[in-house]
Model the fold of this input.
Amino acid sequence: MSLEAVPENSQAYRDSISLVDQKTGDRAWVYPKKPKGNLYTGRTWFSVFLMALMFSGPFIKLNEHPILLLNILQRKFIILGMAFWPQDLPLFALLMLTFVVFIMVFTVLFGRLWCGWACPQTIFMEMLFRKIEYFIEGDYKQQLKLDDAPWNTSKIFKKTIKHILFYILSVAIANTFLAYLIGVDEVKKLVTDGPSEHIGQFVALVIFSTVFYFVFSKFREIVCIVICPYGRLQGLMLDKNSIVVAYDFVRGEPRGIHKKDVENNLGDCVDCKRCVHVCPTGIDIRNGTQLECVNCTACIDECNDVMTHINKPKGLIRYASQEQISNGSSKRITYRSGAYIAILTILVSLLSYLIITRKDVTTDVLRTPGMLYQQQDNDRVSNMYNFEVVNKTFNTQHIEVKMKNPQEAELKMVDRESPKMELDENALVKGSFFIIIPKNKIKKNNSEVIIEVYSNGKLMNQITTNFVGPVQM
Ligand code: SF4
Ligand code: SF4
Done:
């Protein structure tokens, strides 16, 4: 938002961040008011849906395999039931690139909608941990009072119960997180066999649980403001046409307390500061769009309530772009966002094509480097080739390598009897073979030969390579 958008005396906020106490330099603990309103209710139900999806995700299987597994240690990735192996690195990299561009397009158009509505950090913080805190310690004023009070029995009891519940929740989240990394069956084994049998996984679980506990009990908004790379990049991605949670300064300023039956030239903002009290990152949205704003919409609900009470239209704080507020513009797609959308469309098309045409079995064949050709008995010539066959499925594949062209050619394996082989899930087999051709059939010094690879009787790959030999005069 432009500097002119806010009153002159409020520019001081640009010199500090809400996390730091200006007098002491210590962390300024944020005590947000308990939110309520239509958007908060909507977010609560949406969060319930997302949490149900997230906690049940590791148990949902497609063809006996998880729908999402990101096993970095074993380099095994399953996305929507489709397995990606290390050999799929280019495809996986393209998938990640597409995802990043999608996030950019989404952010340019809709700001931090993701942060407020779908980010696990916001969902767990606002919908689980914060609700527990409100339930045990009360609303923000009671929390402030409790923290200022001496350590008596009631305070010790409340704090202990709260932190025990926080840690239990952190363990549940860590278990779910681990299940997405190593699979739910491995996590079940850890639970049933006991930690001593799986010491590495147990240590990982304790580390994850402790990290989550500190994230939600101590770090909180620091994660969104300082640590999260997506949050840090907002300044680069947002523009004047991005839809964000915005204060309508045209309508709201000059702000001030409206006295009953007294004429004034004040705007609609009554300077009640309820939008500031409810903010989980401790900012004043009336200062304009700020890095700290996670678009949680709590201030919209709070201000709408105020507007209802003073008989003014709702929406003094609302989802809007700076251009919409300043000039009433409804333009959404700019050259920049249009370019992003075009790039995203190309990437999605390419990715779809690669996924649709992706083969269950892939084969690479290369003439063995450093070798020309060999004279064989019966007036024949051979070339040697190296091959690599990869099974990308979860099932055993029966592979057979056959000669297609020229028909007189013979394919002879070097290190095995038969060109038939069995490949387990994600197995890879390497080897060498000769292609042997009668001399009188060689018409060129460098001719094309075609090899076919069948999997479970179905043609999977047809490979064209070169054959080098002496031409008969
Ligand atoms: S809640 Fe609305 S009226 Fe109250 S200070 Fe914030 S913007 Fe102004
Ligand atoms: S300014 Fe409003 S939308 Fe942004 S974080 Fe604070 S309460 Fe949420």
Remarks:
- Confidence is low (pLDDT under 50) at residues 1-8.
- Residues 1-358 form one domain.
- The longest strand covers residues 380-391.
- The CA atoms of residues 139 and 396 lie 59 Å apart.
